[in-house]
Specification:
This protein is mainly α. It contains four helices and no strands. The protein has one domain. Helix content is 61%, strand content 0%.
Length: 96
Amino acid sequence: MPVALGFMAYFPKAIGEVAKVSQTGNDQHHPGTPLHWDKSKSQDEADAGERHHMDHLQGNIYDSDGELHLAKHAWRAMAELERFLIKLEEDGRDKA
């Protein structure tokens, strides 16, 4: 699976922005703790992601914390995909 060449090499700037969103969220919700995804905090990836996308499309480039709405949209999309793939795996419906 070409993770580095088939994903990271294509989108280095975008991946950097999404990583910043991860750090900002961690600092907001878990100040002083190592970077981690607290999956119990928010489980509304589709709604929150589309809200960030809509804000971006309306010309509101930055959220109140200074992060790009479009980067937050991407983070939420990746979180939604991750949860979906985990569910497929748990249900025995993954392709792997």
